[in-house]
Amino acid sequence: MTATGTDTLLAVEDLTLELDAAQGTAHILRGVSMSVPRGRTLGIVGESGSGKSMLLRTVLGLTPAGARVGGAMSFDGEDLSALHPEARRTMLGRRVGVVFQNPMTSLNPVRTIGAQMAEAVRFHQKLSKAQARDVSVDLLDQVGIVNPRQRIRDFPHQFSGGMRQRVMIAMALTCSPDLLIADEATTALDVTVQKGILDLLQRIQEERRMSMILVSHDLSVVAGRTDDVIVMYGGRIVDRRATSALFTPPVHPYTRALMLAIPRLDMEAHTRLPALGGNPPSVFDPLLSPAEADERDARRWATISSDIVEPGDVVDPDEERIFRPEPVVPGSEIGAVGTLAAEQQAGVAEGGDRDVAVDTIFEDVARDADAEEGTR
Amino acid sequence: MTQLSNGPSPRTQGLNAVIRPKRFGTSLPLIPRIKPRRPRTVRRGAFWFAVAWLTLLVLAAVFADVIPGLPAYDEKIGTFAQPPDLTVGGLLGTDGVGRSNLSRIIYGARVSLTIAIVSTLIGLVIGLVVGMIGGYYRGAWEATANIIANTLSALPPLLLLLALVSAIGASLFGITIALGVVIADLYIRVTKGAVIGNVNREYVLAARALGAGDVRIMTREILPNLVPVLASIIPMAMAIMIVVEGSLSFLGYGIPAPTPSWGGMIAAGADIMRQFPLVIFWPVVTLFLTVFSFNTIGDHLASRTDVREAKL
Amino acid sequence: MKATLRAIGSRLLYGIPVLAIVTLGAAALMDLMPGSPGQAILGDAATAEQVAAINAQLGYDQPFWQRYLDWVGAALRGDFGVTLFTKEPVSEVLLRRLAVTAQLALMALVMALVIALPLALIAALRPGKLLDRVFGFVTSALLSIPSFVSVVLVSLVFVVWLRAFPATGWVPPTEDLAANLRYAFLPALALSIAEGAFFYRVIRSDLTGTLREDYILVARAKGLPRTHILTRHALRPSLSSLVTVMGLSLGRLLGGAVIVEFFFAVPGLGAEAVNAVSIKDMPMIQGIVTVCVLAYVLIFIVVDLAYAWIDPRVSVR
């Protein structure tokens, strides 16, 4: 992930974000470092509140008033951290396109979509009204809106949710950006519509050879459509690897928890998915070094009920044990807690460095698991 | 721990490892509510100042007769437009005729506060009855309530007031009734809106299922839920009443002399404003502080009872 | 288009029962008041017969319903009668006076808007900061100033101290525009103080609400400048509450500029109303009342149409 030179489009180093609140200081980002190479797609995964949206907002200069940003950011070699948020927005507005989560509220209801699509390109590239309109019509066509020349005079409420998201995508592309960010772009849409949007994004990225960042809390959205993946938790990055290596053991315990939460088609109805106990760390917790944070979080990650309870299983109410009719084949696809200990030293995933702290976790988790099970 | 009778050893169970019982509560991630740090000292200060001022005013008005050294409001204590001195009567100077400003303001407070409170009550009663019936029964009753409210508001209020006061007489009674009728429009609208919002809620349906009659539902169930809305409107309405009463006095339709009223004092002072601009100072300040206090209290209550402060 | 016309028509129709009730109520009220036109015209020294004679002449001896229905009949034909005192046709007096009051009202609205809108925009840019709080406090205070106090204060500052404007009086704009504006300035200013404070608060609170919407975030992400976002994105949705408030203000000003007109001796509708009530000039009163109700209905039709234009999701019912 540490690409060098002009190969890197966006680079962030030790980024911190703080906000003063009534309850104390909220540390929303706690030393995040990552980079996006040109032409590659990055997936950012994490639960709500993990900081993934705020990471992008900080880069784009969309942080709330009074937020304090630390660390370094650069875009295409130019240093962003010295710039005031407003200057960052102006600079990046042309080179980064953003598609936000909620298509129903992302468009101004009292203005035509034509006006909204045209304003960015007219401001940044000084196009005339007619030129901007042609650009907009062409893009609407590319994203699959029929009759773009008529539709451009319509208002947002005349479009469905999926179509509105397509309009948002077209809007993000008007200035031919180098980077496209889709922040939970499909979360508010039906699953069938989701696929259409994600396919569209992928196609556009390939055609234009843009870089892309896909943000989601849903691992399945990111898998298969990105080159690299970052997993965020509690305001920091806990796992990063190439997407193809996502399922290669050793799997990070939190990533594993995310995977286990994905329902699979071969499960029966009413299957209860495993979940983490407890709560994610609060933004008001004091800053910890990565090692300390890993230690604290590992305890929570280890609480995952690693079993998927399917109907027909018998559960012992005293201890919530499951008695399965037949034993599970060991060494199955998703790395088991037991096998982690054996494989933790083996297999450095593709994609280069991983933090030392991450390795330490695997040791701890495996050791804990052994200890607990050994006492039975 | 009981040992599994026929389960494979934990190490090779893979996904079948023992489930730990849940120790914590929900596993849903809680997104912390980050409340921005907003200094509320100014707002709070204004609110308590308003309360203090009104308390002072009420006390002064109630106990006016026993304040030591306070001259009667129609008693000449010196020449006209004297500057303030250190006697109790002359604390705020004298008005255009030589009477004590302080005394006239305090007795004027009696008039203003009485009118404000009583007329608000009258308006409240009318508004509650009409609004409740209109909102609860809907249909023709609501249309009637609408027409009443619209008629009251279509007329220029001052015109209506002048007419009413002329008809009933410019006495405390007449003015109070007139003001009450005019402000009833506001209460009708607010009550009707709130009742309509409440009438389909579950607690009303539950009460009806239990066999409660309409009147009982209206008084015991819906009415208490109107209190927050009304609590913020009432102080503002009182402020309006004080202003309107002042306007009436200013125009000459208020309480007849020599009973002092703030509006009358301002009108009289305006006449001699060129030579003695300070004569109107005290009644203006008192009036302003009183109205401001009512408005502040109303604002404060409104922001407490309403989640989004966006409403006015 | 047809839907619009139908909507206008239905609202006008709705105004008719209100008009009927209001005029009936006004007539009844006047009857309740002590005294009669004859008494008002002739004064206290007149004998009972003289008063009765005048009353008969004016048709005042007829029963209440008769008088009312006569009036309604004449009014439907456009004849509002003549004023009791000067025998001028009521409709002429009404138009003349309405023009004056309307001029004051419009001037006050414009002044209020011109001050409130930019200040609200500035405050909405920095919510919670010092400027916003100061403005909020000041407008709160201004709202607590009754109109009779503001006329006195305005007069004190501009007439007594600055000596820049005349104390009272009026010159119609057709005669001398410059003089007319000089006479109109102070009354309009006095009126605009409270309205301006009110506009400011409404616009600001609506703007801060709108600025929290997602599409504003999208606009910021596009890198558009702040002023552009404010004026092109945030202002338009906030306009509907502004339009409502302006409509209410206009209605209020048209009927309620009584104090200001009284104090500055402006020959407007409000001053005429005070006069008419004091001498029980029935035709005049009914005329004024009719004008007020009609204005109210018309203003709300315009407001509703404006809503539909501002927000394309709203269709005229």
Can you offer a commentary on this structure?
The complex is a heterotrimer of chains A (376), B (312) and C (317). Chain A is of the alpha/beta class and 376 residues long. Helices cover 35% and strands 20% of the residues of chain A. The N terminus and C terminus of chain B are likely disordered. In chain C, helix 10 packs antiparallel against helix 13. The model of chain C has no long low-confidence stretch (mean pLDDT 81).
Main attributes of the structure:
heterotrimer, A: 376 residues, alpha/beta, Rossmann fold, 2 domains, six-stranded mixed sheet, four-stranded antiparallel sheet, 12 helices, disordered N terminus, disordered C terminus, C: 317 residues, mainly alpha, 13 helices, 77% helix, 0% strand
Task: Draw up the topology in text.
The complex is a heterotrimer of chains A (about 375), B (about 300) and C (about 325).
Chain A: E1 8-21, E2 24-37, E3 41-45, H1 52-60, E4 68-75, E5 78-79, H2 85-95, E6 96-99, H3 113-125, H4 129-142, H5 148-151, H6 161-173, E7 179-183, H7 191-208, E8 211-216, H8 219-222, E9 228-233, E10 236-242, H9 253-260, H10 290-301, E11 314-316, E12 321-323, H11 337-343, H12 356-374
Parallel strand pairs in A: 3-8, 3-9, 6-7, 7-8
Antiparallel strand pairs in A: 1-2, 1-4, 4-5, 9-10, 11-12
Helix pairs in contact in A: 3-4, 3-6, 4-6, 6-7, 10-12, 11-12
Chain B: H1 41-62, H2 101-137, H3 139-154, H4 157-168, H5 172-198, H6 202-209, H7 214-251, H8 262-271, H9 281-305
Helix pairs in contact in B: 1-2, 1-9, 2-3, 2-5, 2-7, 3-5, 4-5, 5-7, 6-7, 7-8, 7-9, 8-9
Chain C: H1 2-32, H2 37-42, H3 48-57, H4 64-76, H5 90-125, H6 130-143, H7 147-161, H8 177-210, H9 214-221, H10 226-256, H11 258-264, H12 269-279, H13 282-310
